[in-house]
From TrEMBL:
Assembly behavior: The complex is composed of two ATP-binding proteins (CysA), two transmembrane proteins (CysT and CysW) and a solute-binding protein (CysP).
Subcellular location: Membrane
Protein name listed in UniProt: Sulfate ABC transporter permease subunit CysW
ABC transmembrane type-1 domain mapped to chain residues: 58-261
Organism classification: Bacteria, Bacillati, Cyanobacteriota, Cyanophyceae, Oscillatoriophycideae
Organism whose genome encodes this protein: Cyanobacterium stanieri LEGE 03274
InterPro entries: CysW_permease, MetI-like, MetI-like_sf, Sulph_transpt2
TM spans (from-to): 12-35, 55-83, 92-114, 134-154, 210-231, 243-264
Length: 270
């Protein structure tokens, strides 16, 4: 009995430590942001999120997601299928390259874009030939976002494809189905929850990315500032109300993503 009581006491203390840690690191800072955003009233908050610079930052953040999520979804599906369905030399190396954005600092990723497409970059001749501006403009921000969000879909779909195996696809092929029919009617229904989970993570990272965007965007508020950049610039310019209002919007977007993630996990367990 004393042993069981000692184990229960240890478990309760562990749970308490986890809640205290989460409270100090996550909950109390999040609550403080909401308090600062709404302490002068809801009309002041609404006025802050109706500023032209704020709306432009939201639109720019949405654009970054609209470009990066579909492209990385298609790439992630192709990469996952190649890796899960084939054995070839260099497979482990390919998976390591896909994981590279997880280990490289986003600031370094942004710097790589500048070194490639900047005025003295390796590919500057191509940029001048095409007469487009990449660094300190939307194309550079899109490229940086694509880089940092690249692995999520592939990393979520690969384990699912390996788990379900290729027996059903082989059976469909033996019955005369072509590759496209097999993908839509056999493969996609089996991986749909893993795929959606990867898309959600990609979208969350795209909306919240700061480091890489800060290097390639030029940080011009009202022009090249996404929501995370807007928060920092507004706070540094003593526009605290605007900074906290934008932070609340980002937190709410993260909460929506978490709710969707929980729903998908429940379906996945089924």
């Amino acid at each position: 009995m004393q042993t069981i009581k000692r184990l229960n006491t240890g478990k309760n203390w562990s749970i308490l430590v986890v809640f205290v840690y989460l409270g100090l690191i996550l909950l109390i800072p999040a609550v403080s942001v909401f308090y600062e955003a709404f302490k002068e009233g809801i009309p002041t908050f609404l006025q802050a999120i109706q500023q032209r610079e704020f709306i432009q930052a939201v639109w720019l953040t949405v654009l970054l997601s609209l470009f990066s999520v579909p492209l990385n979804t298609v790439f992630g599906l192709c990469a996952a299928w190649v890796i899960a369905r084939n054995n070839f030399r260099g497979k482990a190396f390919l998976m390591s390259i896909i994981d590279l954005p997880f280990s490289i600092s986003p600031v370094v990723a942004g710097l790589m874009m500048v070194l490639l497409y900047g005025r003295n970059g390796w590919l500057n001749w191509l940029v001048e030939y095409l007469d487009v501006r990449i660094v300190f403009a939307l194309p550079g921000m899109v490229l940086a976002t694509i880089f940092v969000t690249m692995p999520f879909v592939a990393r979520e779909v690969i384990p699912v494809l390996e788990e379900i195996g290729s027996e059903q696809e082989d059976a469909a092929r033996s019955l005369g189905a072509n590759d496209l029919q097999i993908f839509w009617r056999v493969t996609l229904p089996s991986i749909r929850w893993g795929l959606l989970y990867g898309v959600l993570l990609t979208n969350a990272r795209a909306m919240g990315e700061y480091g890489a965007i800060a290097v390639v965007s030029g940080n011009i508020i009202g022009k090249t500032a996404s929501l995370p950049i807007f928060v920092e610039l507004a706070y540094k310019n003593y526009q605290s109300q605007s900074a906290f209002a934008a932070s609340v919007v980002l937190v709410l977007l993260a909460v929506v993503t978490l709710i969707c993630k929980e729903i998908l996990e429940r379906y996945t367990r089924i």
